[in-house]
Each structure stands twice: as C-alpha cells, then as structure tokens.
Give the backbone structure.
Amino acid sequence: MIWDELETGLAQLAAAGLLRRRRTLDAPCGPEAVIEGRRVVAFCSNDYLGLANHPALVAAAREAAQRWGVGSGASHAVSGHLRPHAELEERLAAFVGRERALYFTTGYMANLAVAPTLVGRDDAIFADKLNHASLIDAALLARAEHVRYPHCDLDALARRLEQSRARRKLILTDAVFSMDGDLAPLPELFALAERFDAWLVVDDAHGFGVLGPGGRGSLAHFDLPPSPRLILMGTLGKAAGVSGAFVAGDQRVIEWLMQRARSYIFTTASSPILAAALLASLELIAAGDERRAHLQRLILRLREGLRDLPWRLLPSPTAIQPLLIGGNEAAVQLAGRLFERGLWVPAIRPPTVPAGTARLRISLSAAHDESQIEDLIAALHDCADHRD
C-alpha cells in the first residue's frame, strides 16, 4: 500500500532521532512559555526585540480590526491592497533607505518571488551553501543553473562567477545565517556583484530590526549604498514581532516583481490588522536602541558564561547562539534535560543543519533578563558536569 512507505519513512526518522515534536503554547509569545500547564523560560523564538506581545502592537491591531475588518478579501493586484498595506510599504522603503518596497504574506513567499522573477533558463544563481531553505527552493524554481559556493568563501565565489558564461548572474545569500548566527560579508559580495554585473539578493530575516543604526538591518550595518542591483528581503515576524515580509530596492525592480512575481500575484493579501500592527512596530524598532543594547549585553554574557563547556559555541555576534553537540540523539537528550529544568532550548538536527552538526539553537531576546541568562548558563554547566 502506498501509505506503508509513509509508515516506513516515519519509523526511519524516529530511529535516526529526526522526528520533530510540536508543542502547543498556552501563553502569548514571550520570554516565558506555558506548555501543558508548566511555565518555562523560552530560548526558542525569533522575537529578538520582545515586540510580539507589546501593548502598542496589540492596540494598533485592535483599532485596525474595528476600522478595516479582519480579511483583505482578494490579492493585492485585485482588490486586497488596503490603505494600511500601502502605508506600510511606504514606511518600510523609507526605513531601509530604498526607493520602494513590496509587502508579502510571508518571508518564504517573498524569497520565492525574487530569484525566479529576475533570472531563468540560461542564467545562473550563485548561492551560499548555508542559505535558508526558502532561498534554495527559490533557486530551484528559477530553473537557472544553481551554483552553490562554500559558506562565505569569497575566493570560491569569484572563481565561479569568472568561469560562468551565463546570460545573467544573481548572487543569493542570507545576511545573518539562521542556524550559525554569523554574518555574510556583504560589502565584499556587493563588490563581486559590481565586478561581474550580477544581482545581489540579500535575505535579512534575522538582521532587520536588530542590526544597523536604528535597527535598519544588515545593509545599514555595513553601510551599503542603494544600488539598482542590490535587493533586500526582510521578514516581519521576527524582530518586528508580527508577520509577513517585504522586498525593497530600485523602483523598477519592485514594479517588475509586482507585475510578474507569482507568489505575490496569486495569493490573498494578508490581513490589514497585521499591516497596522507593523506600522506601530516600526516606530518601536526605530526607537529601540536600549532594547538592542540590552540584547547585546545578554549575548556577551551568555558567550562569556559558556566558554568552558565541552560543546563548542559557534562564533556568532547575533542573538542566534548555536551550541554544537554533534549527534542527533545527544542534542535531543540535552534539550530534554534543560526542559526538565524549566529551560526550553530547541535541538536542531538535519536536514536543517548538515549531518553530524546537531546543535542547540539558543535564541536570545531583549525581553529576557539577566537572571534567565544566568539560569541557562548554570544549567548547561550542570548538564556538562553530569554527562553519561
């Protein structure tokens, strides 16, 4: 029977320690979660500034629901583009210093829009090997040659670009890599894009709101100038605390995406409630220097406290702090021991990360306090001292 293959596949995942477990939360997103009546400190979410349950966003959403209703009713290209959507796009473009922005329902859909709309057959996409799954899928959908270069290896990328005879070239990269927490060398990538007349598409999912002056993201962090060849994607369900994503850049590029991007044209626009909440979020991000400073202090304290563990803490200056464990079962067991202590830290395993590099992905938020960081440090040291 055809479903027997599914049972076999699930059994194989279980045997390899790769089954995912979904937990149901009984409290809003925040530094503490309630799961099956138990309160735990959560180091799981990407709510880096602690805005997901902020009163200002809740108030903006409530007011928007009263004025605009709940749903948009259609795609943006038909009748679903409401005034909050338009205002949000204008504000986002101004915030990141680009000519125009386009609002998408999710970051995944935003990434699926860009590469397949700009390149195709006879073209080539040059992608970092540690890119997010949505960028990998976007490259496959584009039907261009998919050239993957070793993680952040500029020399390897330059050789591949020089050897390519593709009609059009596109460099595709995360800005902050979601499982390692390190930053792409964006100035050098931009220089290569200029040298080889290529697009540079940057996924700033984990930098927007956190990095750069005023939280304007990774491009601002590196002080990259506006350029027609430079396209920014930023998600709005992480540091911004709500949902959705945007693509920003030259107005001609954005107009082309609006006219041709399938994941924009053929989907219902998101709720105007979300757009209104995001407008409030942008104000908090812009005024959030103390939140970012507090987050940076937490990052430094965690790194200092975890220096002497038997597991390797990967080099990361961001809120993503990966603790490399190695084996799948070992990572799951360590996560379980922490959960027993009231600390929720997810174990990340293949295919999200390469085989043999299972890890704990410690995700910090400005909503955490110092005592919660100290508790995590102490618990990890205790687990290390009592390893089997």
Q: What stands out?
A: The domain at 55-286 is CATH 3.40.640.10 (Aspartate Aminotransferase; domain 2).
